[in-house]
Design a protein that fits this description.
single chain
Length: 213
Amino acid sequence: MAPSESSKPSGEKPSLATIFKIFLIAGAISFGGGVVAYLREYIVRDEKWLNDEQFLDALEVSETLPGLNSVNMSVIAGDRLRGTIGAMVAVVGLMLPGTVMVMTLGVLWSANRHNANVQAILIGIAAAAVGLLTAVTLQLGRKQLMKPVDAALIFATFAEVSLMHVSLLMALLTVGALAVWIYRPVSGLPHGHERFRHLHERMQKGRHSVWRY
């Protein structure tokens, strides 16, 4: 997938039918955590409803809320496109295919769960989902990966959660607190105040989109 860093959101608001169709397709052809990758593909690269920074803002807010990231993303993106009704249409479109498929596959799984071929298919699907998430991570986070401090924070989080098996809450309290301290606004340094101002604006936009619900 080509980077779409320069893409700008289009000025026209899409119709509710178009929003439903795009999220329905994303929900129908994606699997596992890979739905976020498909959402970026359609919303940012194809339709240009959001740019990469706006998509990342929505993803950051989605990560902090309970529930599925993809559903939270649908609420935020739909709200930005067409308000409350847009959020409802986006969520229904995204969840409808998965709901039907899960109910159908649940019946089939109970009769074939010990089948070796079925197990192999599920492993392959999981690997593909991991690949999709990795692609989105590299596309959206490539700037952070190029900065030594950010790369160190990322590696520290990975080491705590994946290698040391520390709970996610503890990782947030340790590495997260360290990151907040590193990027705190420093008195007398304009660059520190600029960082804080930019973060404050992004949080305000995210909070406006979420707390309307």
